[in-house]
Write a structure and sequence with these properties.
The protein is an alpha/beta fold and 210 residues long. Helices cover 28% and strands 26% of the residues. The chain has one domain: Rossmann fold (3-Layer(aba) Sandwich), CATH 3.40.50.1580. It contains 5 helices and 10 strands. The chain has a 5-stranded mixed barrel.
Length: 210
């Protein structure tokens, strides 16, 4: 299987690089953010199609129903900060009528991963949102909760979903919880645990696929 692993930063998948399974896959570091991820992933796929793409990274959780270090798979994602704030109300591109909710590759305004592989890994399936600015404002956090009911946020996930759905390539978005959204006190984060658990799950998935 032509398996491609993508991550925003080397730090997030460093344990994978030191493992024996690296010979079974290719690796691409895209850089942080949806724009960088979209560009580098699309550029690679123009010349060399993958049979499966796994994006691995850390994420913030919207509440403590997900303990720090928990590894999840993202069933659906969306670009949550693309739109306008008007009269204290957030309106995204679907509210504004700029994009229809079921325009390809969207389904009811979400980028949904329907591939059977994500349900066979035994990990929690969650809804995620992708943002350019890490969310710290209590009012913004509550707004996202009310509008989208997400469990996690990242800065790259929806870009993976968008590109892979457009190209017809199976994909998995794998995330480990490093912090809670809005918490900027790094002493309360657990990056080490999140990265360790993320890579443990990632290595197992690669071994199972191989």
């Amino acid at each position: 299987m032509k398996l491609l692993i993508v991550a925003a930063t080397l730090m997030e998948i460093e344990p994978l690089i030191d493992s024996s399974v690296m010979q079974k896959c290719r690796l691409m570091i895209t850089g942080v953010g949806a724009v960088a991820t979209t560009y580098h992933l699309t550029r690679l796929l123009v010349d060399d199609k993958a049979e499966l793409i796994i994006q691995a990274g850390i994420a913030g959780a919207f509440d403590d129903s997900l303990a720090l270090g928990t590894v999840v798979m993202v069933k659906q994602d969306r670009f949550a900060d693309l739109g306008v704030e008007e009269n204290s109300e957030w309106k995204d591109v679907f509210d504004l009528g700029l994009v229809k909710a079921d325009d390809e590759p969207f389904h009811n305004a979400w980028l949904v991963n329907k591939h059977e592989k994500i349900s066979k890994q035994g990990l929690p399936l969650v809804s995620g949102i992708t943002i350019n600015e890490i969310t710290t404002s209590p009012s913004r956090i509550q707004g996202y909760r009310n509008k989208y009911q997400p469990l996690i946020e990242s800065m790259e996930g929806a870009a993976l979903h968008f590109v892979c759905l457009q190209e017809g390539i199976p994909f998995i978005q794998l995330r480990a919880i490093s912090n809670y959204v809005g918490e900027r006190d790094k002493s309360k984060w657990n990056m080490r645990l999140a990265i360790a658990n993320l890579n443990r799950a990632l290595i197992k998935i690669i071994e199972d696929l191989a």
